[in-house]
Amino acid sequence: MARILLLCWRDSTHPQGGGSERYLEHVADGLAAAGHTVVYRTSRPRGAPRSDVRRGLAGAGPSSAAAAGAGAGVTISRGGGRFTVYPRALGAILLGRFGVGPLGRLRRPDVVVDTQNGVPFFSRFATTAPVVVLVHHIHREQWPVAGWLVSRIGWWIESRLSPRVHSGSQYVTVSLPSAEELVELGVAPERIAVVRNGLDPLPDGVRPGGPGTRADGPHLAVLSRLVPHKHVEDALDVVAALRGTHPGLVLDVIGSGWWSDRLREYAAERGLDRDQDRDRDRGQDGAGPRHPAGAVVFHGHVDEATKHRILAAATLHLMPSRKEGWGLAVSEAAQHGVPTIGYHHAAGLRDSIDDGETGLLVDDVAAMTTATERLLADSELRDRMGEAARRKAAALSWPATASAMAEVLTAVTEGRRVTGVIGGPPRRGSSPPDR
């Protein structure tokens, strides 16, 4: 059995943790369940323990916990903040080579998975073990949010330095469009493997979406971290544009993040914090509206069961993010027969959404508005896409994802490189394109 070190700047307990962290945690669960020694090194937010050992780390679904229960669990090692997590991890790796420090139990790992969320850990400078670079997507569109200086440095590291430093390393990404982006940065196609996202089963007590779960009126849903590059404002614009022709239209925003207050302000600016017939519904005495509910509901962070009940009630799911590696929310909505409308340029959505079959891909917010109106008006087309999306989601599982990653790690420890889609039916091409 192998000793495996997983590096990621966050885990799912981090206040800003998201889908990429859940991906690696599910992989960790599967590897530990198979008997491997797995350590997940990450940052330490305020109040988090320096280390713990957990079974069923991702734990959102019963199959995940059951699978992890067969192994010794995953050791979580934490240290550092947003920027210091990187040097702290490298220091821990170096100390671990001598059997001391937070990674002392690993000593010299057999393989390291270095997650590049914009920038990698550059762990190959601290370990003699083979390094697998995990990239969900390229951050070209997101870097400007970090400010002029940080964005220039970050993009240089991601686009120039990292490909050179890891010129001999195996890469793993989660979709074929993301693989294409890596090739554009100079990564050799024969060193890029695609290991797609899995999917948790529905929580106990939650019915899959259907006629008995849908809301009475048209409901749009957005499932996302509330940060600028997710562009939830576009979904608010869609609702503002369609309220006149679709009375009672509601947008359910599921998720939290530091951009939440600004989104609430924007919703108020667009008049979405009040009923569209507010003035007409006022009594002669000027009393408040009889229907005070607005057109957008910010649910914040919710538990898994609540999240799925909101999705099951939705008519459509909107994904206005500018960039996604895969778009896990697309698959979670699909579990309820809810098709997604997203952006073609968001890379991974071209893999998670089959345009015209399981949802629609568009170019801008105006086209998203048109596509939303089209599907709201055509229930037959909407239902057909929703059922196709449900079938696609049914083929995804986290055990399959973990098994595929294990296949890649085994090859790397044997000195081989792998390419193409691993452990799943190929879609729209089975390997990254040639340069």
UniProtKB/TrEMBL annotation:
Keywords: Glycosyltransferase, Transferase
MF terms (GO), sorted A to Z: glycosyltransferase activity
Disordered as annotated region, ranges: 42-68, 273-294
Biased composition (Basic and acidic residues): 273-284
Keyword Glycosyltransferase assigned: yes
Ranges where the Glycosyltransferase subfamily 4-like N-terminal domain occurs: 18-201
InterPro entries documented for this protein: Glyco_trans_4-like_N (IPR028098)
Protein family (similarity comment): Belongs to the glycosyltransferase group 1 family. Glycosyltransferase 4 subfamily.
Name used for this protein in its record: Glycosyl transferase
Lineage, opening ranks: Bacteria, Bacillati, Actinomycetota, Actinomycetes, Mycobacteriales
